[in-house]
Amino acid sequence: MTPPETTATDGEVEHQHAIKESADLLRFATAGSVDDGKSTLIGRLLLDSKAIFEDQLESVESTSKSRGYDYTDLALLTDGLRSEREQGITIDVAYRYFATPNRKFIIADTPGHVQYTRNMVTGASTADLGLVLVDARQGLTEQSRRHAVILSLLRVPHLVLAVNKMDLVDFSEDVYNRIHKEFTSFATKLSIPDLEIIPISALLGDNVVTRSEKMPWYSGPTLMHHLEHVHVASDRDLVDVRFPVQYVIRPKSDEFHDYRGYGGQVAGGVLKPGDEVVVLPSGMTSKIAKIDLFDKEIGEAFPPMSVTVHLEDDVDVSRGDMIARVNNAPKPSQDIDAMVCWMTNEPLRPRQKLAIKHTTRTGRAMVKDVQYRLDVNSLHRDQETKELGLNEIGRVQLRTTMPLLCDPYSKNRTTGSFILIDEATGVTVGAGMINSGT
Ligand SMILES: Nc1nc2c(ncn2[C@@H]2O[C@H](COP(=O)(O)OP(=O)(O)OP(=O)(O)O)[C@@H](O)[C@H]2O)c(=O)[nH]1
């Protein structure tokens, strides 16, 4: 029997197209200790996937020669780009773009010498994949463990441990197996849904883009093959509708009376015209009249699309409000239980007051308790020290002055996270992942 013919509606076609678009893009964050070879690896990825321009390569080759190297120092490519961007920015993350015929990539590159959790958290918070480098001669270090812990707390769904400089350990299977064993046993204590451990030489290119002939014992994918094929579209929450309103487009005159829209980025679920929705915190309900993407009307919107939503009724909606589905809305919470990464010298302590930014709202919060501090090496929970120092991670209870419309971070990385800001200086001093709100 022939299956009935189906015709896709415009909305479905757009949906498929947008899913393909988001699947075509991989955001990944790199992490490693100083000199593990991160810059060299990024240079190698760009070079072997032919994502760099001839003139850039020529300048790197001539600089390498003038410095007396008998190889092309690919780190120059990355570091050159990086130093330009480092100027005057507090959060030291360089974003780099490249593409292969199979996928587009955005790399959030955090310099290894600045061992700040802040950079790592900023770079990895929106990543689909985290790439942690270790030097095969050293194996795991405290910093590689810390990076794995942070990636797991940030629920980065895919993790790659690249065991680099395999050429310096004679491409030894034993060395790889030892690091593999040590890391997998550490990783069982973390939540890492997908882990790949790849032996590479960033300098020589083994298993980066081309398969290494010197490591016939390794049967897994090359790094590039994995980056191109890792499945990311299903990582997004398409069930619970969450639309934090970023701005309200008001009618300028009577002529545009109909054009009241709410702009923002979809943080969860699929929105469609005709859906019954609730506006929080007011609790007023309405229906979605239409959804615009730039100046085009679309049939569906889902994460991470930035759209303008129009409602059928003239309800009162302001910046910081959230549009959700009736019967499936987040509960407003003022008592927040979260894992916090602290990013400044002055410790986080009970009774401290801070500004808190959650989705599109900013308010104030007081630290009620530091329940424990997490030792990133042993994963031991220290309940004695009631504070968090620079780069430390712990479980913290906060009381906010306004209710947050939040979800657990495990359900939604956008509505489940917040940043803490020093009220006097305006500097970001912490990042939080919500366990629960009551
Ligand atoms: N033998 C060998 N040397 C490597 C390899 N990868 C990197 N190196 C060398 O290790 C040194 C450090 O590499 P970088 O790429 O600058 O290290 P990094 O981790 O990016 O360091 P930062 O830029 O300071 O963050 C350089 O001398 C590289 O040439 C490798 O696979 N094999």
From TrEMBL:
<dbReference type="InterPro" id="IPR041757">
    <property type="entry name" value="CysN_GTP-bd"/>
</dbReference>
<dbReference type="GO" id="GO:0004781">
    <property type="term" value="F:sulfate adenylyltransferase (ATP) activity"/>
</dbReference>
<dbReference type="InterPro" id="IPR031157">
    <property type="entry name" value="G_TR_CS"/>
</dbReference>
<dbReference type="GO" id="GO:0003924">
    <property type="term" value="F:GTPase activity"/>
</dbReference>
<dbReference type="InterPro" id="IPR009001">
    <property type="entry name" value="Transl_elong_EF1A/Init_IF2_C"/>
</dbReference>
<keyword id="KW-0548">Nucleotidyltransferase</keyword>
<keyword id="KW-0342">GTP-binding</keyword>
<dbReference type="GO" id="GO:0006790">
    <property type="term" value="P:sulfur compound metabolic process"/>
</dbReference>
<keyword id="KW-0547">Nucleotide-binding</keyword>
<protein>
    <recommendedName>
        <fullName>sulfate adenylyltransferase</fullName>
        <ecNumber>2.7.7.4</ecNumber>
    </recommendedName>
</protein>
<dbReference type="GO" id="GO:0005524">
    <property type="term" value="F:ATP binding"/>
</dbReference>
<dbReference type="InterPro" id="IPR054696">
    <property type="entry name" value="GTP-eEF1A_C"/>
</dbReference>
<dbReference type="InterPro" id="IPR000795">
    <property type="entry name" value="T_Tr_GTP-bd_dom"/>
</dbReference>
<feature type="domain" description="Tr-type G">
    <location>
        <begin position="23"/>
        <end position="252"/>
    </location>
</feature>
<keyword id="KW-0808">Transferase</keyword>
<keyword id="KW-0067">ATP-binding</keyword>
<dbReference type="InterPro" id="IPR011779">
    <property type="entry name" value="SO4_adenylTrfase_lsu"/>
</dbReference>
<dbReference type="GO" id="GO:0005525">
    <property type="term" value="F:GTP binding"/>
</dbReference>
<dbReference type="InterPro" id="IPR027417">
    <property type="entry name" value="P-loop_NTPase"/>
</dbReference>
<dbReference type="InterPro" id="IPR009000">
    <property type="entry name" value="Transl_B-barrel_sf"/>
</dbReference>
<dbReference type="InterPro" id="IPR044139">
    <property type="entry name" value="CysN_NoDQ_III"/>
</dbReference>
<dbReference type="InterPro" id="IPR050100">
    <property type="entry name" value="TRAFAC_GTPase_members"/>
</dbReference>
<dbReference type="Pfam" id="PF00009">
    <property type="entry name" value="GTP_EFTU"/>
</dbReference>
<dbReference type="Pfam" id="PF22594">
    <property type="entry name" value="GTP-eEF1A_C"/>
</dbReference>
<dbReference type="InterPro" id="IPR044138">
    <property type="entry name" value="CysN_II"/>
</dbReference>
